[in-house]
Amino acid sequence: MKRIFISLVLFLTWTVGTLFAQSIMIKGTVLDEFNGGLPGANIMVKGSSNGAITDMDGNFSLQVPNEKSSLVVSFIGYKSKTVVVGKERNFKIKLD
């Protein structure tokens, strides 16, 4: 009986946490100094293992936990850039 109760509590905790999670879908483009898309650029949610890699045109989409999330954008030969999500949902991120 105790195992069933513990299992039920864990299941309900997970379910409620999933229902109230307010993750956000964002998308954008990573650009080089000439405003061309950078294929293969890395976009990571700071402090997590959640991330994406840009496609051939420099485009990406990514689920982030909330508006306070920070993105770390990097590409070999360019300075990494950190961007706070905020209210923005479509990004153009230029690397230097």
Straight-line distance between termini: 61 Å
Going across the biggest sheet, name each strand in turn: 3-2-5-6
Indicate the mean pLDDT.
88
Structural class: alpha+beta
- Taking Cα atoms only, what radius of gyration do you get, to the nearest Å? 18 Å
Q: Which consecutive residue ranges, at least 5 long each, have pLDDT under 50?
A: none
Strand segment count: 7
What is the helix content? 10-25%
The major β-sheet equals: 4 strands, antiparallel
Which word captures the global form?
Answer: elongated
* Binned strand content: 35-45%
SSE order: HEEEEEEE
Number of helices: 1
Description of the structure:
This protein is of the alpha+beta class and 96 residues long. The chain is 20% helix and 36% strand. The chain contains one helix and seven strands. It has one helix spanning 2-20; strands at residues 24-31, 42-45, 51-53, 59-64, 70-74, 81-84, 90-94. A hairpin with a 5-residue loop joins strand 2 (42-45) and strand 3. The longest helix is centred in the N-terminal third of the chain and has 19 residues, at 2-20. The protein is elongated. The model has no long low-confidence stretch (mean pLDDT 88).
